[in-house]
Amino acid sequence: MDASDIQSDLSDVLYTADQIQNRLNELAAEIEADYAGRDLLLVGVLNGAIMVMADLSRSLKRHCEMDWMAISSYGSGTQSSGVVRILKDLNTDLSGRHVLVVEDIVDTGLTLAYLIQNLKSRNPASIGVMAMFRKPEALRSPVEVKYIGYDLPNEFVVGYGLDYAGRYRNLRDLGTLAPHVYS
Ligand code: 5GP
Ligand code: MG
Ligand code: MG
């Protein structure tokens, strides 16, 4: 595999780093208003949410804590199964905490549905969800995502934390891959 320029592997840039940051600033202001007077614990879902967690948390002009979970979907292929394995659990006790789950992208919402059910059993004071991107399929999911960055078309995207075969997470923009990458 060619280890050269990443940008040339994109066929389209859907959202630039600047657009993403501007949207995060708006969401951060909403979150500040909604969580005023309450302690806030951001829970990032590894690995995809690393970039959105870093940028959203630094857009907040208030205190917050951050913790991380790593999860992996069982099953093969590109279709989400909704059966999820916890690879790394939180270090924080959630009881009585106001938790905001920070996600990269919601597609079927199956991963998120499992995660929310799991976190609810730990007796937090509240659970909310923020996702940087949302696919059309997610609208049929029962999980409410209160804070959405951008709605996407039903295409496979990479960048801003999202990978293809482990790569492209470090791309600043979000885009679609050129056909030559797959072949
Ligand atoms: P869901 O359970 O909502 O169908 O899938 C959620 C997970 O699938 C995301 O956290 C992400 O890891 C992966 N995913 C869904 N859509 C995309 C996409 O377009 N590109 C990439 N790179 N990953 C995706
Ligand atoms: Mg994710
Ligand atoms: Mg992935």
UniProtKB/TrEMBL annotation:
Pathway: Purine metabolism; IMP biosynthesis via salvage pathway; IMP from hypoxanthine: step 1/1; Purine metabolism; GMP biosynthesis via salvage pathway; GMP from guanine: step 1/1. It is found in: Cytoplasm. GO terms for cellular component: cytosol. Residues 18-164 form the Phosphoribosyltransferase domain. CDD domains: PRTases_typeI. Belongs to the purine/pyrimidine phosphoribosyltransferase family. This is Hypoxanthine phosphoribosyltransferase. It comes from Micropruina glycogenica.
